[in-house]
Amino acid sequence: MHGKSWFGLVLAAFLIPAGLNAQSATVVGSVRSQSQLPVPGAHVAIPSLGISTVANDAGNYQLIVSGDQARGQEATMVVTRIGYRSQEVSVTLAPGVHRRDIVIQEEAVVLDEIVVTGTAGRQQRKAQSALIESVDASRVAQSAPIASVSNLLQSRVPGVSVQQTSGTSGTAQTIRIRGAASISLSNEPIVIIDGVRADSRNRQLVNAGGQSGSRLNDLRPDEIESIEIVKGPAAATLYGADASAGVIQIITKKGRAGGGFSQNVSVEYNAIDANWDIPDNWGRCTDTDIDNPSRILCYGEPVGKLIHDNPLDRHKVFRTGELRSLTWSGRGGGENYDFFLTLGGDNEVGTLPGNEYGRNTGRFNFSFIPSEKLRLEAGLGVLRVKTDLPQNDNNIYGFLSVALPGRPNTVGDAADGWEVANRTRESAAGITARDVTLRMQPRLTVNYTPFDWFSHRLTVGADLTRSEARQMFAKNNIGWYGTEELNSGRVVEARENRDAITLDYMGNITHHFSDDLTADISIGAQLLTTRTDLTSATGIGLLTNAAHSVSAAAVRTGTQSYSEHREAGALGHLHLSWQDRLFFETGVRLDKHSTFGTEAKAFVSPKVGLSYVVSEEAFWDEVMPEFFGSFRMRGAWGTTGRAPSSGALTTYDSAPYARVGGTGAGVIQYDKGNPDLRPEKGTEVEIGFDASLFDERLGLEVTYFNKKTTDLILSRPLAPSEGFSLNQTVNIGGVVNRGFEFAANANLITTPDFAWSARAAFNTLHNEITDMGDVAPFGTMNKRAEGIQIAAFHGYAFRGLEEYTDADGNVGTRMVVSDTLEFVGNFLPTFEGSLSTTINIKGNLQLYAQLDRKSDFYIYNNTRQWRDRQSQNSEEFVRRDEILSDEEYARRWGPFITESGETIGFNSVNTEYIEPGDFTRLREISATYFLPQNLASHFRASSASITLAARNLALWTKYSGPDPEINSSSGAFSRSDFLTVPTSRRFVARVNVQF
Prior knowledge:
This protein has 995 residues and is mostly beta strands.
């Protein structure tokens, strides 16, 4: 860990308890839910005395009553927290310290919660016509084995699908919200941190196979208070033409005005297991092998002896990885200010050599209220992330690439069971790929309310990213890499600067027409500027590996690219409230994007919606059974879009041309452009209801959504005679995504000594390309065509075996396949669900587990295909005559003939390796023990907990590979497993202490 010495000094300076007036009455205690979970942020007050405080992150509070008020009288304490029923308790105010622990009841459906994402005007959840999901990140991270932001999102919100690309530490994930709506543009949601657009790209500046890092995971989970997710029409007005794929707003932790000062120290250790039964390489001894003493598995053995070997196991390439983490945070506030400060660092060592991932971050948030009319909020995040990735996935130089095609016959000689003699463990270890990124995230928000009916909010912020990347192939004289260029030593250096600046204004006017009718009129504007500057240089031919700068290489080349985009939007929004139970909202937003040039028309994003809290009507209690609590109906319609980064304007590229005495700088046509190009347009309808039953023991959220994307951008082929390098982009396609989302929260048992709660969530998805205009279907294995999912898997269908006679008169069997590629299975799961449960015993022991399920999707097992057909060292190939039927053999190796009589090579028939990926995974399990108060006080702590947990503990699937959840390619529409490390298994130990 960097900076341990100053970090310790900071901790020592803060860990000093404040003295208490002995003549005062001090009321201390904890606020917990019926499930015995701490309730941080609960407001504890004695209204008659005008005294209040706020519970800290452990749910502990402290109220001090001055000596002249502490005369033994009875007083009433009132405890409130959004999402809970208010609770009144009596307390005797006498000198000394008195303990009063309080239990408040959770609401199954939280309608009064304030949401900040996708809202204008009224911000209560019940006033929103579209569902805005929330993840209580601080609560989840307290006990669950969470190492990244993607872990926080995974399997917690219906309709939000998170897929890890690899088990290699530091690699990225893909996030899809309600399916995929675009073929040509990104389907990743935009990410906002405290109102400022954030860099959330999956990015790798130097080649590391199909792997890339994730800017989203630069953030440490313990900095985050909550995450709000906008999946549909709620995004239309506020986020406009960039919100088609959804919006994720990360809300970092803030101080608590009037909450005193508290500190938190967390120490965590993870043991990381590769979680993979690595397949052996198989072979048979040949005449050459049995006479060669160096080939120890075959020397002196009979010809044809079956042998197998595992060089990865034999050389112990995989190791037990580890994560070490230390975090300190301070939180507090006074009458007119609050603050939050955190410092932390992680150092993770992956399961493969050369794989490390480290984060050192700090964040400071501060709020100041100089007057009742003005509130100032400022924040600064500083993040430094270092990622070392080994070569992996679709890469011929990585550890798996040189081991899984290996030959057991060669064990003992120069190749020693690896692919070839010059491609070994040492060659893979001789390649390095490092990315070091520094990010600064400044933010300032001014909230000004000159009148009770008129408020303003102005946010100015930025996400400034500076990345340095380096890749090196070590110089060697034994031909590790097969080419002179690489064997002589090659180094690549890349530098990227990316600045995203956000300017956001929102004004709100509130008018009460009567006691029953209130209107909120909001106006706003947003400006986003994004600038990216990338420079890279390559050096070939190193004198020594120690002198590895580009300038030290014999041959040097370089490239540079620059782009800048501006987006501007203006919005108007009307929100009507009738008796605080019936809410109507409508709005419109106008957007312009620099991609389309200055003359393009603005893109219009309208929205309309209705929310009705039926259970607040007077008739509700009369007509509904007692077990039926709150009930809200909601519906919304809205339009969003997604703008391309290019394609509207005609562009040119430079090219050299020959002239007398040398070459000159010329120009060629690059992109023809399309002046009529528009953003892709997504129109979505969402309807649903929220309900609580059985005295708030069961809460339900049910939603139906139907999103139709029109003006889909596709590439239309141009005639070669036009001379442009790129095909023209046009708006001629359509895609539909529709389905149901369901979430249920249940408090099954709630007693003072035992509490059991559960959550079930699932979603369905129907994704279909409805229109491709005059663009012909394209893609082979992952096809784009009307009437199917985007990138649905296709292959030659097997019709069965038939006998045939070859030209020499030999009789054999062959596999008959379809004449054309046919549908095999879906690319996107049509069902995703999760089930989690929490048990609390006597408020001291908390047990938690989560199951995750995905079904009706396929994955291409290219590793199995490669080992069967190319390296031919799988057990199925070597023992094919013993363990495979004639049909099983023919599905792999043929020979193949179509129904119309055309012979096809086996490399073109991959249907056997397109496998169902359905799985159920025990995603998380944990046990957290909260030390009794009297024991924690021995450490001068207000609370302390110890957590033991595991992640990805078990997997149930029929997929023949190690993990159907991984993806070896960074492509948007690829789902394949090719020499990819599966999702790792983690064992977690965490100690958390609060002062």
